[in-house]
């Protein structure tokens, strides 16, 4: 039953409307809570939609923001600072998506592809909000991650009263959200299942898309085929999910779909983004390369007024989410309240540059002109701007043998580093790693991380790249320093054959100060724990290789293993 009450939050009185009944076009009722000031006037509304439960979002009123690695950090409290929204004279409307929380209906598959599209529900929800007496007809949206993706799905449906969106930390290419370079990433499991400290989806009526599409006997055959992957077969949680799919419907679907294609495209915000012509502000922080990549792609796709803002490391915002509100309210004050605050006079693209601690601005990404230059892997674990002159007979490959993590807790890592830089050296953009490698199995992972290593031995992660060896094919989008893989099929590797593997290095911006080195690390599994991983959410690691693999990395005159990196061309920015 709908209720009305007031509460005190930090000395301010907030009016709360609970369990509002929001109708949709197919007869399903969604529920929402609305928070606003106590004076009797209509205000612009900021809508937050997710399946995580509106009651969970109310913790923003009582819980101090937690930063990783706090054990109180709950990745699903993402709808924003309720008190701040009300103090800025907006209505904060937080709704449960169908099949979750207090809402009716069923959710079929992630983001409800195959059932009623969640963008359609968002359209109906936004238009209902705009008609309420406490709303002045101007609607924006709020919230990060899943809430951010919902903003894009909503805007693509073009509800008339949605005037602008502000998206922070959203996920847009759904295949790349789940499989980095073809390597399964576990963080979506935490968001869906609630493992590792996250509350997860407030399931009430959700169904697997795969179980809807396939008869039981046919699905059993597909499951058995998926279990033939030794990586999957060696990981207990995945075996459990595949054997008992009704326990974890969404995660089951993701595990079963390890190749890109129609299953991901039918719900992909990037594919829908050309429909978006309202003002869009996109914000993301460094250290989350896969998300930066999708954010930039979305920025290049939407057609209306737009901003791209890439903030500083570390990668994860507080929970409850409270960051970026200053920027958000300037954006919405301009587009929803008509306040000419100069926000549209500022550059379209702003990125924080690690190392120099400066901001770079421009009208596109990257915001500065760049020249791609190669750093070659050389003997004695060094990187050089000069390629190797010796052939394979005289420049022996580097190598490592990795046993499965089911039998060892040691992750073998190869590393190479430059000499100390003598002047500020700035890099902004995407990059590539060309590795000439030989393995003795049909598949492995290549995981590469770039670090800024200080004279005192300190390390700052700059960017990363991932590639499953069987996904090594490139497609026609590939250019120098900007590789792309279709991920539409897996092609087993011929053991003992030297192949060139090209890893995409996610977008980054960094200045290497004098005395600092660029260090690159290569492994086929991630360290179980390190300084960077501790800043990420629970379960934010990748599926380890389930078989023993010997790797040889060739770096001779014929096999020029190298990094291709975007050096800015401003005076004094590049290494001589």
Automatic annotation (TrEMBL):
The keyword Hydrolase applies. It holds the Pfam family PepX_C. Keywords: Hydrolase. The keyword Hydrolase applies. Residues 329-564 form the Xaa-Pro dipeptidyl-peptidase C-terminal domain. GO terms for molecular function: dipeptidyl-peptidase activity. PANTHER family: COCE_NOND FAMILY, PUTATIVE (AFU_ORTHOLOGUE AFUA_7G00600)-RELATED, PEPTIDASE S9 PROLYL OLIGOPEPTIDASE. This is CocE/NonD family hydrolase.
